[in-house]
From TrEMBL:
It comes from the Bacteria. One of its GO terms (molecular function) is 5'-deoxynucleotidase activity. GO terms for cellular component: cytoplasm. The keyword Zinc-finger does not apply. This is 5'-deoxynucleotidase. The keyword Hydrolase applies. It holds the Pfam family YfbR-like. Residues 31-155 form the HD/PDEase domain. Keywords: Hydrolase. Coiled coil: none annotated. Gene3D superfamilies: Hypothetical protein af1432.
């Protein structure tokens, strides 16, 4: 029996190259981070926040759907690369890239076989995300950035001092019960050494 596909697609080959795209490109990193690593961490954190929101605070949210969308939250960077935060949030760059993400999203969806587009297009298109899920993914994205900054500071890299303050400020500005729960319950563990983690201190 032959495969039902009509032609070859480079969609997932593009996604696999996220591992080659470095984040925090304008800053000296003690430990480099790529977009594939970041996407995995954001998916894990978004899933955790969604579970907390559902099971602790009684919100109607599907953690598995949140985690899946989070995996694709930076998928367009497979084509655009990662724009460093100081650059992409400058007024000139915001204007120049206002429609870029949507256009690249459409381009990537266009690479998919027709039979897969209905399932995958809503994963890539942020505008198609339910508001509650988008909020959780944004929280997880900020949390991932803050944990990266904290780790760099623990390694003695002062390059991330201002970034840590800015990200934490955004987190506090948009604090939610599930984020506070995560920070209070799981946050201290990120400050521990491996030996302390193994001992359960």
């Amino acid at each position: 029996m032959s495969s039902p596909h009509a032609s070859h697609s480079p969609f997932y080959a593009h996604l696999s190259r996220l591992r080659f795209i470095k984040r925090w490109g304008l800053m000296r990193n003690a430990v480099e981070e790529d977009v594939a690593q970041h996407s995995w961490e954001v998916a894990v954190l978004a899933h955790a926040l969604a579970v907390i929101a559902r099971d602790v605070f009684g919100q109607a949210v599907d953690p598995n759907a949140v985690a899946t969308r989070a995996l694709f939250h930076d998928a367009t960077e497979a084509i655009t690369g990662d724009l460093p935060t100081p650059v992409k949030y400058s007024p000139a760059m915001r204007h120049a890239t206002a429609n870029l993400e949507g256009e690249v999203c459409d381009e990537m969806v266009g690479l998919l076989p027709e039979g897969l587009k209905p399932a995958l297009a809503p994963m890539l298109d942020h505008h198609a995300w339910p508001e509650a899920e988008a909020r959780l993914i944004k929280q997880a994205d900020r949390l991932s950035a803050w944990l990266k900054c904290r780790a760099e500071l623990r390694y003695g890299n002062r390059e991330f001092e201002q970034a840590a303050e800015q990200v934490r400020g955004k987190m506090e500005e948009h604090m939610t019960p599930e984020m506070r729960y995560f920070l209070d319950t799981f946050g201290p563990g990120y400050e521990l050494t491996l030996d302390s983690l193994m001992k359960g201190d």
